[in-house]
Amino acid sequence: MNLYALFEARFSTDSTTILLTGEDGRSLSVGELVDATARYAAFLQSLGVQPGDRVAVQVEKSVEAVLLYLACLRAGAVYLPLNTAYRESEIAYFLSDATPKVVVHSPNDTEWLAPIAASLNVRHRYSMPAAPLSDSQNVVEGRSDWDQNARKCSPMTGFVHREDDDLACILYTSGTTGRSKGAMLTHKNLSSNAETLHRTWGFTESDVLLHCLPLFHVHGLFVALNTILLNGGKMIFHRRFDASSAISAMKRATVFMGVPTYYTRLLADPNFDAKCCEHMRLFVSGSAPLLPETFAAFKQRTGHTILERYGMTETGMITSNPLHGERRGGTVGFALAGVEVRVAHDDGSIAKPGDIGHIQLKGPNVLAGYWQMPEKTAEEFTSDGFFNTGDMGTFSADGYLSIVGRSKDLVISGGYNVYPKEIELMLDKIDGVAESAVIGIPHSDFGEAVAAVLVPKPHATLEEAQIISTLKKQLANFKVPKRVFVVQELPRNAMGKVQKNVLRHQYADTFAPK
To answer: Three-state secondary structure along 450-513?
Structure first.
């Protein structure tokens, strides 16, 4: 089924029901959403967009962006969201690779994006700023050229039929190493994952989602938005995360989804306490590892236990800590219903509980393949059809999965395998350490040497010799960092993941001959 049709079937039959409320109090009703997406879809069709054609979108978070996403689904087009941080060379690659028929972008980017689109013969280009939420306030000034054109169209009736295996979206991986890959996600990939999360996390008619995540990423677009739309769509919509604004909105929300940075910023606000959360039923964290310290501090401060889950661009969500039962800090819980997860050794044999290996999975959520990369697609699947996540992990005896790092982050020092997460957990327990990242850097004797990059807590002083001395009492010598670097912050991508490739490049010459 067309994913949009699945969403619309869950909306209230009362067209005046409010689906979405913004920070400024403006709202969007069921009727307004259905009408706007019908006009947006009709405009796409008037531009010659056929089922399967790509529509590239690089815009700031707005309700218009939500409507455009839904309109693409409704028209059978393939939605291609692009990180708003991407610049000329990156956008040129994505547009040349995906060959979209339409590009919609922020008006602030017109000067550099327009020549790129023209050079690649992109037929249609429109701008879309952050716009008013609804026509009900009679606010038209400042509307985008996209929106003004689309709203002149007669609304499309119904939706374009789609099969389960038809593409709904293409999301490019972060591209931290090598050429970025376009993960092809089908209507079935997205609908199956949303339906599973809806059941697993116990959504009911009374739930209201506080949405503070960006819309170009799996977390904000598919985990948060798709799941709440499947629930009837009630959400408080913030264009970006701000701790004080989020705290204020929690008295009207029941569910919050965020990256670990959001939780540390909430805890840093002295006004954040259990009373602020008394209306909330669920806090979900993902996109990057949640520090055990944050997990514990949040529970102590609020009485709520954060539910950590695990997923990736190519698969949506894979595992989750339980809604009912122990949510175990430092783990990502159990495989979701319908998803088979295993940990395998290099030779393909299945790892025993406690052993570290490659995380692999199979299920209806797994991507159809990488756009125009059949060889890469084949490489990422095992002979028996399991997708290789590239993550290393281990199962506990009672079935909780823990992530120990990316396989490419594995450090092989003197022939010994070193898993960075093990050392990072030790470092994070040392007084004065706010966070850590462990990497491997070239070394003439060992091949790779273990190095640690630390961020100190406010007013703390970290001494390299003292850190190394402390770790030598807790770890085998081959695991102990040979160098410790102290920085004010770690490099991160848009979703808060530490970019270890940047650190490896920065410190690559540490042991080079002088």
So the answer is: EEEEEEECCCCCCCHHHHHHHHHCCCCHHHCCCEEEECCCCCECCCCCECHHHHHHHCCCCCCC
